[in-house]
Amino acid sequence: MTSLEMIAKILRVDKTYLHNVDDCLSKTTGKTGMLDQIMEDNNEKMTQALTVLGLAREAKAHEVYEALVKRVGMDDERIFKVL
Questions:
Q1: Residue pair 50/64 in contact by the 8 Å Cβ criterion
Q2: pLDDT single digits (tens) 68-79
């Protein structure tokens, strides 16, 4: 799947619309490959966030959900202790 397809799926927009936006941005800024850079940045941030949760990039949705619930609970306890 291309960066354009991935971003369109994430944003739930039509691929053609996103392609047109990318073309306009490229013409306006003179930069190309912006969607690829966005996707690369997104992948890095996702990997970092999953690492903080103690998960691998291949984690399933329910694993991410459980890790987030656990993290919220831990953070809630820490806040309660401070207050």
A1: yes
A2: 999 999 999 999
